[in-house]
Amino acid sequence: MIIAIKPGASAASVARFSAMIEKQGIKVHRSEGASQVVLGLVGDTTGIQEKSLLAHHLVEKVIRVQEPYKRANRLFHPDDTRIAICGLDGETRHIGAGYVGIIAGPCSVETREQIISVAQSVKAAGAGFLRGGVFKPRTSPYSFQGLGCGGLDLLIEAKNVTGLPIVTELMAIHQLEIFDAVDIIQVGARNMQNFTLLKELGSCRKPILLKRGYAATITELLMAAEYIMAGGNDRIILCERGIRTFESYTRNTLDLSAIPILKKHSHLPVIVDPSHGTGLSWMVPAMAKAAIAAGADGLILEVHPNPEEALCDGEQSIRPDAFERLMKTLQAYAALEGRLLKEEAHERP
Amino acid sequence: MIIAIKPGASAASVARFSAMIEKQGIKVHRSEGASQVVLGLVGDTTGIQEKSLLAHHLVEKVIRVQEPYKRANRLFHPDDTRIAICGLDGETRHIGAGYVGIIAGPCSVETREQIISVAQSVKAAGAGFLRGGVFKPRTSPYSFQGLGCGGLDLLIEAKNVTGLPIVTELMAIHQLEIFDAVDIIQVGARNMQNFTLLKELGSCRKPILLKRGYAATITELLMAAEYIMAGGNDRIILCERGIRTFESYTRNTLDLSAIPILKKHSHLPVIVDPSHGTGLSWMVPAMAKAAIAAGADGLILEVHPNPEEALCDGEQSIRPDAFERLMKTLQAYAALEGRLLKEEAHERP
Amino acid sequence: MIIAIKPGASAASVARFSAMIEKQGIKVHRSEGASQVVLGLVGDTTGIQEKSLLAHHLVEKVIRVQEPYKRANRLFHPDDTRIAICGLDGETRHIGAGYVGIIAGPCSVETREQIISVAQSVKAAGAGFLRGGVFKPRTSPYSFQGLGCGGLDLLIEAKNVTGLPIVTELMAIHQLEIFDAVDIIQVGARNMQNFTLLKELGSCRKPILLKRGYAATITELLMAAEYIMAGGNDRIILCERGIRTFESYTRNTLDLSAIPILKKHSHLPVIVDPSHGTGLSWMVPAMAKAAIAAGADGLILEVHPNPEEALCDGEQSIRPDAFERLMKTLQAYAALEGRLLKEEAHERP
Amino acid sequence: MIIAIKPGASAASVARFSAMIEKQGIKVHRSEGASQVVLGLVGDTTGIQEKSLLAHHLVEKVIRVQEPYKRANRLFHPDDTRIAICGLDGETRHIGAGYVGIIAGPCSVETREQIISVAQSVKAAGAGFLRGGVFKPRTSPYSFQGLGCGGLDLLIEAKNVTGLPIVTELMAIHQLEIFDAVDIIQVGARNMQNFTLLKELGSCRKPILLKRGYAATITELLMAAEYIMAGGNDRIILCERGIRTFESYTRNTLDLSAIPILKKHSHLPVIVDPSHGTGLSWMVPAMAKAAIAAGADGLILEVHPNPEEALCDGEQSIRPDAFERLMKTLQAYAALEGRLLKEEAHERP
User: What is the dihedral of CA C184, C190, C194, C200, to 10 degrees?
Assistant: First the structure.
């Protein structure tokens, strides 16, 4: 961290300021410029906030050189993290480090028939994981809130039938107790900075699918991952799902630039949700292909047998047949860069 | 709600679609246009989402005429809601309906001396409420996270000493047990759509200070209030605290337009947080005055005896003497529209 | 400007890099930190762009200490600039340095009767200037584009009748020839970075009302002013008129924070356009008051005798009687800080 | 267009309002709902603005069913538009309708050696067009503004040497006179709503590369194209180049969702500028691939022999060797969907 001191500051006041910082265990290196003093902070500055320093009357500007995250940082973990999960069918699915994982299923679990039929279709088409919401974060208290525990039972039944690992969203800590059979726990965009929840998940032994908040910067997403990792759980899958901008044609603006940035600064796998990211099913194939081309390690896609009658988010769900066609296309895209989409790949390490 | 059907839809398919909607207890009125059929939905459409309708292949466009909130809606509650809280000193403080409530105090409770001295200063200057964070939502897991329960004890001590009602942020439901002595519970911007928390607060008997999420629309803020109100707690104070935009000079862009909009559509009191809304203490007086001029029912302000040594957000805290000067100015602004700032006003109803 | 060099850079490469910068007439001061070299650039760095430096493989981060604008910078011109314009009635109107100037009139000049009647009403209510669009920037080529030269003639007629100085938008350089009788030339938000136009206006001798682009940062607005000032014209009035955000209730999000920021960094007067800034006439009074309270040096307001029949932007225009009431309120707000709104003030210096 | 009338409006006032609209040559169809009257407007409503209607006291909501653009609208021109340009080498290059056109070259023309060497490299690598800025829109009046006419001469020389058609930005109408040898005229993001310029280009016979303004909606981009097309020039290439959002890691947020949306609603070809869209050269390959995967009809890329010494935007330029490698990859991506990148394709229709 580098601090530019305001011109004209007295040597004594700069010394006092430096001493204050050094009390936090950081070494301050002072260098005298032509017109202005610059302080270089050496040591672990992850606990220091730029804006706290800016409160000081001597400080003109601050630049952070070291990123504020450690465990999520590729600098300290150069190799890609790969998440591996074994299904009840004995097959292991992978996300990251050359494997493109596809998570598919309905926005909400609605009926036994619906979830099992979707599970079977997406498995047949090559999906690695089954998604299905049971506790639903809805803008209105009067909208369908998900089937809750009953829905979770149906999702688990679909897991038992197909062998697919399952992914579902956790909305509150106390739900952890009933998430035993869940393979990947999703933290929704609205909870990305629910720090109490994140801390709790740090001591959980399951992979976490962490969605980017719709107004979160890329650094904030990595800091949210850091919260979980600081607690000891380093199996995090980051998920870009669209940010809020002035453009109102789409539900959100899918920020595919986030993929190469996250992968440069972090070793964690990065997946994309083009269903929420656009909010429009006809856009899903184009954006899914673009996400893979930009380097995404996977996708999470809403698939519904009858989107027009979906209880939630039907306008962004594709049908099983469209999903099957899309999977074929995506395989070709992944293959261009030597990556594997479908889990036929026993021969890979 | 009005639905424009795509041109060329068959009468039979429109009839089936109408029947599907009517199953939800809503009457559908069909009117035949020159080139296109339009359906008018009559009844309580708050549970219907525009985007679910858009999933249907017959639907071209949807307009919502009725707002999706009920209890927060001024339509059904034309008079301003006023929140009244009696302090331990026997005085009642008000927010809303002609009363401008001022909540002041440090970002974080740090020491007994700090919080008691700030409490005394802000009371002397005319503040109606004392704020102080004890559980702090911080972007980094390595930053100061607040003093926790020990901090809450200090805040309560300051309440006992000064008689001022206290306001502090709740980060998780289980903290409710220890919030007995807290007078107003704050829900932070990052938890505005933590729906599990909101539902829980619906059955709580304390006023809730609900901060707008930094990427939440005005409608979403009202829907978050509606979540709490649907549970039976209608003492909500809405708080504008800045939204995320491309402008990076300020921490957030304080959206003062939200004040007249919220007050037009809702009866709930609306306050403003210029400290977080700008992130810069020198801007606080200008934006505090502007908020009052725009019609805000109150302010929440960070005051710290020594901002340069604050453990959190010092750059946006003003000193007690600046606060005192600001209070005098704000009184003059409030008086211009016949509103009361300081609680000298026993004679008011 | 301070440049943090990447750790591990060789002394020779840093020396070559420094030499490259010094060729641009800037002195480079090198200081050796514990882990990293920092370069301080001394001299006029306004022509150097941070991002060009970032292209260099040695550069890790760059901080600009000196603002990139000079003539618009309060640092080199500590006193407020005041724009004074004498009307045909012999009275001088002022904007800035204690004077709050009010510019009012219709979005578009429509008929002789309309513009003269509005001019008379707003003058009677205390406005200092008459606005009226004749060349209109419209999103659609099929919308009313303004009356053009004929409209300008009518606007000039209204000036002759009332004595009020007139303000209208210039859309292209060649229109300058017919702008002789125009007192203040408006540059619209969409032209804020039409650099060819800005350069041309630098050699013009009339005050320029420069509107902030709807996605322009505050620094970019000041740089746009700098373009004009670099050409020799330093009579610029800056105008905040709303920025684009995710919030769609209002046409734009009026960024009142821009007022104190612009006034801190620049000596130029700052006015606000609450009509375009909100797009909704019922919000204009609240936001006009807030703008004055935040320190604005003036307002530009749309006033139309019959907003429902306006050819352009009727939904954001207020009626003459509402304008008159608003003027009385605004005077009270301005007076609170010892500022003058109506031009009764011969006694002021 | 559908207008929901406020409940309780008298039949007579609705009739007067309808008559007012019918005066504009539009038929109004009135349909009586259970609680509210709805008007359907039949005819060409492109000249009617929603917000003008909203000014009327009877109007509650407005939905536009018909898009406000005509000539740019795919509805009236179902087939993809293909832009074909013959180079001095006798080869024809295409953009759109199955052809992926690549425009490459430096941000600014700097020297004869630089532009000719880049031109030769990018041609050898398979680019179809040479770009090079000579009139540069720069945020600061003190930054390098391009070589102007001298630069244009050098660019034309590079065209003569290589045979590549050239693309450069026009900043003002009067420059048209010297643009004879320019093959595609670029309108920059900051001029996207310079309506005077757009109208002028409507009578020009050259293809126009129209960049999306950095805060322009997709509809506004199409309306800007419509301005040019309304004048008779229908050879427009739309270009997505990043929008402004709160995310500050990248210069802009490249909105790849715009590609499928523009292609659904318009027949015009759509290209992407990943250099400006990210501002970071290391991100260009990932985003270029993603753009092609999302369906873009081409790319405009900054290539510089020595980005570290570029006079402008070096941080976002790639080197010729990186460009060559990228071209090979992009060909593979284009081929996946049967599209052609390099112009080897004489056999295509």
Answer: -10
Q: Is the CB of residue A62 less than 8 Å away from at least one CB of chain D?
A: no
Q: In angstroms, what separates the C-alpha of B293 from chain C's closest C-alpha?
A: 5
Q: What span, in angstroms and rounded, lies between the C-alpha atoms of C336 and B290?
A: 13
Instruction: Please tell me which residue of chain C has the smallest CA distance to B215.
Output: C246
Q: What pLDDT does A204 receive?
A: 95
Cβ of residue C319 closer than 8 Å to a chain B Cβ: no
The tokens for A49 are 């906030």
Q: In the prediction, which pLDDT does C348 show?
A: 44
> Is B130:B155 a contact under the CB 8 Å cutoff?
yes
Supply the pTM of this predicted model: 0.93
Tell me whether residues C29 and A34 touch, CB distance under 8 A.
yes
SS (H, E, C) chain A: CEEEECCCCCHHHHHHHHHHHHCCCCEEEEEECCCCEEEEEECCCCCCCHHHHHCCCCEEEEECCCCCCCCCEHHHCCCCCCEEEECCCCCEEEEECCECEEEEECCECCCHHHHHHHHHHHHHHCCCEEECECCCCCCCCCCCCCCCHHHHHHHHHHHHHHCCCEEEECCCHHHHHHCCCCCEEEECHHHCCCHHHHHHHHCCCCCEEEECCCCCCHHHHHHHHHHHHHCCCCCEEEEECCECCCCCCCCCECCCCHHHHHHHHECCCEEECHHHHHCCHHHHHHHHHHHHHCCCCEEEEEECCCHHHCCCCHHHCECHHHHHHHHHHHHHHHHHCCCECCCCCCCCC
Q: What is the pLDDT along chain C (349 residues), one digit of tens a residue?
A: 888 888 888 889 999 999 988 988 888 888 776 677 888 888 888 878 887 888 888 888 888 877 889 999 999 999 999 999 999 999 999 999 999 999 999 999 999 999 999 999 999 999 999 999 999 999 999 988 999 999 999 999 999 999 999 999 999 999 999 999 999 999 999 999 999 999 999 999 999 999 999 999 999 999 999 999 999 999 999 999 999 999 999 999 999 999 999 999 999 999 999 999 999 999 999 999 999 999 999 999 999 999 888 877 788 999 999 999 999 999 999 999 999 987 554 444 4
What one-letter code names the amino acid at D156? Answer: I
Multiple choice CATH, B83-336, 1.25.40.10, 3.30.1340.30, 3.40.50.720, 3.20.20.70: 3.20.20.70
Geometric angle at alpha carbon A145, from A159 and A195, rounded to 5°: 85
Q: Does A4 touch chain C (CB under 8 A)?
A: yes
Of B27, B62, B65, the CB nearest to D36: B65
Q: Hunting for tokens 């398919």 — which residue is that?
A: B13
Which range, of B78-82, B326-330, C345-349, D102-106, averages the lowest pLDDT?
C345-349
| Beta-carbon count within 10 A of A20 CB | 13
Q: What is the dihedral of CA B250, B256, B257, B258, to 10 degrees?
A: 100
Whether C165 and C87 have beta carbons less than 8 Å apart is answered as yes
Structure tokens at D289: 């691939």
Q: Break chain D into its structural domains and give their ranges.
A: 2-63, 83-336
Cα of D209 to nearest chain B Cα, Å:
26
Q: How far is A199 from chain D (nearest CA, A)?
A: 25
Q: Are A278 and B54 in contact (CB under 8 A)?
A: no
What pLDDT score was predicted for residue B34? 64
Contact status, residue C228 vs residue C201, Cβ threshold 8 Å: yes
Among A54, B278, A245, which residue's Cα sits nearest to residue C259? B278
Query: Which CATH fold topology does C2-63 show?
Result: Alpha-Beta Plaits (3.30.70)
